[in-house]
Amino acid sequence: MTYARVRVKRRTLMWIEILLFALLIITAITIVRLNDLFAAAMLSGIFSVLCASLFTLMDAVDVAFTEAAVGAGISTVLMIGALALTGSREDQQPTRLGPFVVVVLTGAMLIYGTLDMPAYGDPGAPIHQHVAPEYIAGTTTEFGIPNIVTAVLGSYRGFDTLGETAVIFTAGVGVMALLLGRRKRQGKVESTDASGDGNG
Amino acid sequence: MEALGIWNYWVVVLLMMIGLYAVIARDHLVKKLIGLGMFQVAVIMFYVSMGKVTGGTAPIIPEDVPAEGVLYSNPLPHVLMLTAIVVGVATLAVGLALVVRIREAYGTVEEDELQRMNGAGS
Predict the structure, then answer these.
(1) Each residue's pLDDT tens digit, A10-61
(2) pLDDT given for residue A197 in this prediction
(3) Rg (chain A; Cα; Å)
(4) How large is the ipTM?
(5) Contacts of B5 in chain A (CB under 8 A)
(6) Which one is the CATH code of B4-52+72-121: 1.10.287.3510, 3.10.20.580, 3.40.430.10, 3.20.20.30?
(7) Taking a C-beta distance cutoff of 8 angstroms, is the pair B73, B59 a contact?
(8) Measured between alpha carbons, how far is B116 from B25 in angstroms, rounded to an integer?
(9) CA distances from A88 to B16, B19, B79 (A)
(10) Cβ contact (<8 Å) for B18 and A28?
């Protein structure tokens, strides 16, 4: 492949990225404006798939399929389940000025903060100079597995993954503690309705 | 031209602020959680776009091609963000469970009504 053709390809990729980012912003604004929350939950699934496409373009294939499985799959299912229990209509409400001003100010400050960031895709950025080259070189010699992300996740940073597991466990215990009581209380109400005795 | 090189961070900031607006301006608690998820995806996008190297490829070592001279994108943000996605869905699950409990206790999940009830109660 000649140099010119590679350049054209990169340019095309950049336009695809810009198109996906534009779709992402439109989806996000629509989600915030919708009053029907079932539709919003569905759109948040589309939002996740668009993000996964962008992650693929940014070479983060592992992040992409995790986002597609977790964001578009599990999160949407959880949200629809919760909406079935709580009702999916949101009250109509006007655009408020106060939050809008806060958001614009925060965004302006964050953009000011990015002005010193290295350019997008710059190979000389500080993030690429520290431990990442060691991980890339060490994966072949120390582990011999093809996927560098797996090597870092499972071995170089195994304690992070252990901490993640602890977080998931805690969250599972929390959800069970919140929702198991619900079933018991509902059962109590039903048995009270059925038999009429209130000393449960 | 130098300012155009960081457009990806500006898109991320825009996305983040849309999520933040949903969290602080909308009343329905599930909508707030959707906004929180959007904010979180923006943070993930920020990290992943920092790890991108122009002309680089996904950090997977090909079997037959000699490894020298291949430019990989930075795998470290990918690893950290994998953890963040999974922790994010755990947060979402706990948040939704809390919303279900609030609905059970108050009969509504609209924040303004909840505040009115709490104000009238105390």
Answers:
(1) 778 888 888 999 999 999 999 998 888 899 999 999 999 999 999 998 888 9
(2) 37
(3) 24
(4) 0.88
(5) 119-120, 122
(6) 1.10.287.3510
(7) yes
(8) 16
(9) 24, 19, 35
(10) yes
